[in-house]
Amino acid sequence: MNIRTHRKFWQQFVIVTILAGATFGIGFYAGAGQDDTYVVRLESSDTPDTLLADFGPFWRAWGVLNAKFPFEDTAPIEQARVWGAIKGLADAYGDPYTTFFDPQESERFESNISGEFGGVGMEVGSRDGLITVISPLKDTPAYKAGIKAGDKIIQVDDTVVVDTPIDEVISFIRGEVGSDVKLTIVRDSQDEPLEITVTRAIINVPTIETELRDNGVFIISLYNFYAQSPEKFRDALAKFLESGSDKLIIDVRGNPGGFLEASVDIASWFLSEGKPIVREEFGGDEQEIVYRSKGYNVFNNNSKLVMLVDGGSASASEILAGALSEHGIATLVGATTFGKGSVQELVKITPETSLKVTVAKWLTPDGNSISEGGIEPDYIVEFTDEDIENDIDTQLEKAVDILLGE
């Protein structure tokens, strides 16, 4: 399969999913055609006062389908046509994370985010119309099966998922604990697609690990930004301070992110009170929100900090890396981050349907969009498949060299 033939030019990503209780309705009253065949009427009390688009072609197409479709009774699909129209409306924005869930999809989505399910343990995003692995989470089935950051999923079992909404693909991958799912992936280093079978499991994600090396370098490996991450990071940072080391590495490679508040709290250990950490930019005239340091600021000027990042570092990882880099606290080493920097809100359209819509973008303290290209490190270091096979971490070695002044 030639991947280039399936690509669309989408480059926007999601950082934090916000489940909000806001609701709104949409509806139209229209009907225009060359004869009465094309008159269609839908009633709603929520019809916008002004519409900037010409809905004539839409209603004409609706009428033509009514008149020309070669079956007498189209009543069973009337509502399905409305759902399809809203899906098309959402797709027209060209954002893979703005999507409409019909009743069946909405039920499946809500089940996935609220109940226990079997997964494979990887974070994914949408890039160029392809579902791309941001990172396999450490020690999960995906990690053990050999899934890698940057892998592009083109088929799940027998279903081709090119240009398929990300939430739908995720629902295909999830399933009964203990069952297998076959993923067909494209990897840049391979000439042909790979088929990898992964056994679903309940996913327990590690949060943090620490290590003090003989050369005095202290390493904090942070794997996520979940609710418990700030407390665990505080404990890890206390170990660093107690060790007497003045050389710190924070490794967020393969860290797909998590809660915004966790990234703000962790960044606050390195920045004085009030320093900007991340900006939330909305469209139109709505004023941006700036999230600022709480001023814990225990990291003194005599210490050196290097952050390790790569293509699997996303969302909250990018917020932390961008803030500490632009404030001159950390030197970044590794590879350009994923670029996952937009915010979604889940809105109920009807009691049975919902719309997930992008409402904002994340910007670094200096106003750079995380979605547009990610965060580029100060030192770009290649990390090849050969390095992995030989257990050589060239990026970590470079970080150590920088701290030791070599």
Task: Please characterize this protein's 3D structure.
The chain has 406 residues and is of the alpha/beta class. The protein is 25% helix and 25% strand. It has three domains: 3-108, no CATH class; 117-199, PDZ domain (Pdz3 Domain, Roll), CATH 2.30.42; 208-404, 2-enoyl-CoA Hydratase, Chain A, domain 1. The chain contains ten helices and 18 strands. Strands 1, 2, 12, 13, 16 and 17 form a six-stranded mixed sheet that branches. Helix 8 links the parallel strand 14 (304-309) and strand 15. The protein starts with 15 loop residues before the first strand and ends with a helix.
What attributes does this structure have?
406 residues, alpha/beta, Pdz3 Domain, 2-enoyl-CoA Hydratase, Chain A, domain 1, 6-stranded antiparallel beta sheet, disordered N terminus
**In what range is the share of β-strand residues?**
25-35%
CATH class of the largest domain: Alpha Beta
Specify the overall morphology.
globular
Residue runs with pLDDT of under 50 for 5 or more positions? 1-45
| CATH level-four homologous superfamily name of the largest domain | 2-enoyl-CoA Hydratase, Chain A, domain 1
Helix content: 25-40%
- Following the backbone from N to C, one meets helices and strands in this order, namely EHHEHEEHEEHEEEEHEHEEEHEEEEHH
Number of domains: 3
Please compute the radius of gyration using only Cα atoms.
24 Å
The name of the CATH architecture of the largest domain is Alpha-Beta Complex
SS element count, helices? 10
Main sheet: strands, sense, barrel: 6 strands, mixed
Name the quaternary structure: single chain
Please count the beta strands (DSSP E, at least 2 residues each): 18
The CATH topology annotation of the largest domain reads as 2-enoyl-CoA Hydratase, Chain A, domain 1
| Terminus-to-terminus distance | 46 Å
